[in-house]
């Protein structure tokens, strides 16, 4: 069996992370890549022919009227999920012994990689979070501090937006999958024969809320 060269840890929240990670992997042909993700993201990655462990199952966002409810409770659930993911990452890295860890917003795998002195690359849209207020914001600030420390230890941080690079942060612009079809061919394929407005939203329940509101317009 060939050694896993790249351990690719992909956030299972929505399909956006998996989509761009597939796009990146298409440029790494010939490399032995093994993914760790979960639910719909793992299914999409597998459809593109990559090896993937369906191990990550994050807590749901309780979004009502576009607002995250019970944010303090959600932070606690996410903290427990993070610790579960650390155990999963530890087992994967011990078994597969990858040469490089690439993480798309999965900080648990970066923690293990950095403990083991394995080169690590982070792909992320956000450099800190702002989910909570009140008491929860105090906890979140500490979590953001830990996140910044992990980011600083990464060999490279890839941010898919335009802008200037700084230290280990590289802003590369949008990361998208290539397509064999033209715009007109895609419109015909999906039956978009009328004037079309594309609404791009996130993969959490907040995205569902936004889609429902757009339909009402």
CATH class wording of the largest domain: Alpha Beta
Q: Report strand %.
A: 15-25%
For this structure, the CATH topology of the largest domain is Rossmann fold
**Net shape:** globular
Alpha-beta content class: alpha/beta
**What is the strand arrangement across the widest sheet?**
3-2-1-6-7-8-9
Question: In total, how many domains does the architecture comprise?
Answer: 2
The helix-strand sequence is: EHEHEEEHEHEHEEHH
N-C termini distance: 55 Å
Q: What Rg is obtained from the alpha carbons, in whole angstroms?
A: 18 Å
What's the total count of β strands?
9
Q: What does the main sheet amount to?
A: 7 strands, parallel
| SS field, number of helical segments | 7
Question: Would you tell me the overall average pLDDT?
Answer: 89
* Second CATH tier, the architecture of the largest domain: 3-Layer(aba) Sandwich
| Model regions low in confidence, pLDDT < 50 over at least 5 residues | none
The CATH superfamily title of the largest domain: Glycogen Phosphorylase B
As a percent range, the share of helical residues equals 40-55%
Output the keywords.
217 residues, alpha/beta, Rossmann fold, 2 domains, seven-stranded parallel β-sheet, 7 helices, globular
Short summary:
The protein is of the alpha/beta class. The chain is built from seven helices and nine strands. It is 43% helix and 16% strand.
Task: Describe the structure in your own words.
- With 217 residues, the protein is an alpha/beta fold.
- It folds into two domains: 166 residues, Glycogen Phosphorylase B (Rossmann fold); 34 residues, no CATH class.
- The protein contains seven helices and nine strands.
- The strands form two sheets. The protein has a seven-stranded parallel β-sheet with strand order 3-2-1-6-7-8-9, sandwiched between helices. The chain has a two-stranded antiparallel ribbon with strand order 4-5.
- Helix 5 links the parallel strand 7 and strand 8.
- It is globular, with a radius of gyration of 18 Å.
- The model has no long low-confidence stretch (mean pLDDT 89).
């Amino acid at each position: 069996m060939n050694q896993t060269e790249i351990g690719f840890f992909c956030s299972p929240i929505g399909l956006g992370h998996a989509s761009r990670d597939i796009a990146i992997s298409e440029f790494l042909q010939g490399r032995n890549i093994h993914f760790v993700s979960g639910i719909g993201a793992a299914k999409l990655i597998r459809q593109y022919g990559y090896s993937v462990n369906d191990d990550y199952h994050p807590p749901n966002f309780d979004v009502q009227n576009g607002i995250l409810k019970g944010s303090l409770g959600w932070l606690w659930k996410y903290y427990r999920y993070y610790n579960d993911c650390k155990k999963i990452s530890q087992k994967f890295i011990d078994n597969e012994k990858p040469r490089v860890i690439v993480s798309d917003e999965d900080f648990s795998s970066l923690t293990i990689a950095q403990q083991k002195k394995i080169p690590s690359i982070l792909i992320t849209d956000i450099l800190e979070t702002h989910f909570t207020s009140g008491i929860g914001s105090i906890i979140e600030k500490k979590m953001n501090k830990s996140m910044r420390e992990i980011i600083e230890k990464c060999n490279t941080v890839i941010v898919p937006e335009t802008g200037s690079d700084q230290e280990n942060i590289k802003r590369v612009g949008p990361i998208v999958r290539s397509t064999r079809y033209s715009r007109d061919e895609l419109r015909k394929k999906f039956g978009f024969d009328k004037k079309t407005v594309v609404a791009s939203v996130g993969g959490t329940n907040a995205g569902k809320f936004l889609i429902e509101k757009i339909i009402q317009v």
